[in-house]
Design a protein that fits this description.
Blueprint (H helix, E strand, L loop, with lengths): L11 H11 L9 E5 L14 H16 L9 H18 L12 H11 L20 H16 L10 H13 L6 E3 L2 E3 L1 H8 L7 E5 L9 E3 L10 E4 L2 H13 L4 E5 L6 E2 L4 E2 L24 H9 L7 E10 L5 E6 L11 E5 H7 E7 L5 H7 L4
Parallel strand pairs: 4-6, 9-12
Antiparallel strand pairs: 1-10, 2-3, 4-13, 5-6, 7-10, 7-13, 8-9, 10-11, 11-12
Helix pairs in contact: 2-4, 3-4, 3-6, 5-6
Length: 381
């Protein structure tokens, strides 16, 4: 996996030029670009359940480009580490009756950057002891096993006050020790200072969005998926309005964090396509084309699939563009975090129908939302 170190001002213009073309690097005779927004390089989460951090970090990087703040390669694993501590505290306080997994949601990253800051990947790659690739399988088992042993002492003896330092030692072993300060462009920063002074990050610049029929529209509710361990709230919108919000954001130069189900029949990453197909239809990948007839969709079908657990919270990615086929069929251009796999070097073309049925949640830059939408949600500009 190729890693980029942070760049100096001298290379700023070159870097911006490169970044603005990365989302357009995908070429295909099947698709015509409508809008392609700046995106940083495709990365690989490898053998980890950290798509939530890779995708949302990519969103923040694109927003920095959109704001002309610079081209950043930010550390996904710094956020992963901070969230693992939050998960542990939640798991202990709830005496093991809570979700403790590798997963998370987009709002976890936004909250983490606001609370703990962030830093370039060159300052914290999250690779220790000579590791070259990410693999959290063993680390997760040790973290979970340790917490379960701590909880097992409850009821007979008070939990030891040093449980968290011991837990952090496991994280140190597998991810590396966190730096208190680091150098960037010949100046020392803490992660909080870097976030506020260089990245100019504000959590309130991002809005969580979803669409389900069993909650009031235009009001927030705690989204009911297992990886929402921190009980994050999302504004609920009618389905067609949510789709329009995402499309308008892209058309206006912004990008969108996308949380979706990718385990069903129509998601074919090796083909670079995601289409809403009948679960019982077996289409050979060689025969799968962008113009294939898709299933009908509406808000009730979407809700039913969520209720019967067909649609689940599987994977988070980053929407950076809009495309269409020669006959006008609309697709979202999505940056994945599985390396440069598939025909489009890590990008996937997601049909509007697939997006409508399989979206769990979005994180949208507030600047991409017009006054009508903000007023409906009662969010101040």
């Amino acid at each position: 996996m190729t890693r980029r170190s942070s760049i100096g001002f001298y290379f700023f213009i070159i870097a911006i030029s490169f970044a603005q073309n990365t989302s357009g690097q995908k070429k295909s005779l099947d698709f015509i670009s409508i809008k392609s927004n700046p995106a940083t390089i495709v990365k690989n989460q490898e053998n980890t359940g950290t798509c939530w951090s890779f995708s949302t970090t990519s969103l923040i990087e694109s927003q920095a480009l959109q704001n002309n703040f610079g081209n950043f390669d930010l550390s996904e694993m710094f956020t992963v580490r901070n969230i693992y501590v939050e998960k542990a505290k939640n798991y202990i306080h709830r005496q093991g009756h809570a979700q403790f997994s590798e997963g998370g949601l987009g709002h976890d990253v936004i909250r983490s950057v606001a609370a703990y800051g962030i830093l370039p990947e060159s300052a914290y790659a999250g690779l220790a002891n000579g590791q070259k690739t990410y693999d959290h399988g063993e680390m997760f088992k040790k973290l979970k096993g340790y917490l379960d042993r701590v909880i097992a002492t409850a009821g007979t003896n008070p939990i030891s006050s040093d449980w968290l330092p011991e837990y952090n030692k496991i994280l140190d072993t597998y991810l590396g020790i966190l730096p208190e300060r680091f150098q960037y462009n010949n100046k020392a920063y803490t992660p909080i200072e870097f976030s506020s002074e260089v990245l100019k990050f504000k959590a309130e610049d991002y809005v969580n969005i979803t669409s389900f029929t069993d909650h009031d529209y235009y009001k927030p509710f705690i989204i009911e998926v297992p990886d929402n361990f921190s009980n994050g709230a999302y504004y609920n919108m009618p389905l067609k309005e949510m789709i329009s919000l995402a499309e308008n954001a892209i058309e206006n130069g912004y990008t969108v964090l996308w949380d979706a189900d990718v385990s069903n029949n129509g998601f074919r990453s090796k083909k670079g396509l995601a289409l809403y197909l009948n679960a019982g239809v077996d289409i050979n990948e060689d025969d799968l084309k962008a113009d294939v007839q898709e299933e009908k969709w509406d808000a009730q079908i979407r809700q039913d699939l969520y209720e019967n657990l067909t649609t689940q919270d599987d994977h988070l990615m980053h929407i950076v563009g809009l495309e269409k086929t020669s006959d006008g069929k609309l697709f979202f251009l999505v940056k994945n975090s599985w390396g440069k796999n598939g025909p489009y070097q890590g990008y996937i073309n997601v049909s509007e129908a697939y997006f409508a049925i399989n979206t769990i949640s979005l994180v949208v830059p507030k600047a991409a939302m017009n006054k009508v939408v903000l007023d409906k949600l009662k969010i101040g500009k």
